[in-house]
Amino acid sequence: MDVSYEGTKRELQTDEGVIRYHEAGAEHQKVLLLLHGSGPGVNGWRNFRGNLGFFAQTHHVYIIEFPGFGVSDPVQGHPVLTAGAAVLRFMDALGIESAAVIGNSMGGVVGVNLAIKHPERITRLVTIGGVGPNVLSPSPSEGLRLLQEFTDAPDRDKLVRWLGSMVYDRSLVTDELIEERWVAATDPAARKTAAMMYSSAAFEMQQKFLASSDAPPYWSMLHKVQCPTLLTWGLDDRVSPPDMALLPARLIPDAQLHVFPRCGHWVMIEAKAAFEATVAAFLAG
């Protein structure tokens, strides 16, 4: 099976621009969507390139590139909302009635929101950190503070500090990774998206909105998630501290929680073999 970048890349023309994606696995297999996180230089391929071959053995896998991260065409609106709409456009265009979802960080929030608002479309949900509110830990977390500092005034040293907060094993932050992320993070579309999500101004605006709005936060609706859900977390996650898992683990009716030791925010990378085995068992459910 060819699971290389060139061998799997595809693009889909929609009424709101091109959605680019990667595809692997046999046609007859159940569909699995991989939804990426956010942050400097992130995209779907970089999040899940190491896992695509494993999951394509049992599923027809699509890595979807969200609008605004330098790969798919950007669209107007907040990135989390436009990402969810893009997933639905993608599924509709390819005739995918329902699918299992693995979402990393922001991708997990996107998956949760889809499961709440369109329960018939999501059959099983796996989240990797990111879902829920900070219960005991400071908010924003250390990792988000570093991300905010980079977003306000990007430079390479700030990128390195932020990447270091993403992992337990600092040796994973290689010169190659730093260069790859630096080049991608300076893409104009990616910088615009980052400013909307993580700048100091965006954080201040969000706090004012929360103080004045009567709209409930998404995590207060987690009891509406109907599909079986696996919450995965790194015990040493400094971006989404593990106490965030407490509320979704309690509110989602059919939820299980798996915490990986000596692991940071990138569970699918840092605890690759254990993560893949755990998720495979859950998806086979």
From TrEMBL:
Matching Pfam families, A to Z?
Abhydrolase_1
SUPFAM superfamilies, A to Z = alpha/beta-Hydrolases
Q: Per its record, what are the GO molecular function terms?
A: hydrolase activity
Name of protein: Putative hydrolase
Spell out where the chain crosses the membrane: none
Q: What is the lineage of its organism?
A: Bacteria, Bacillati, Actinomycetota, Actinomycetes, Mycobacteriales
All residue ranges annotated as the AB hydrolase-1 domain in the record: 31-271
Organism, scientific name: Gordonia hirsuta DSM 44140 = NBRC 16056
The record's keywords, sorted A to Z, are: Hydrolase
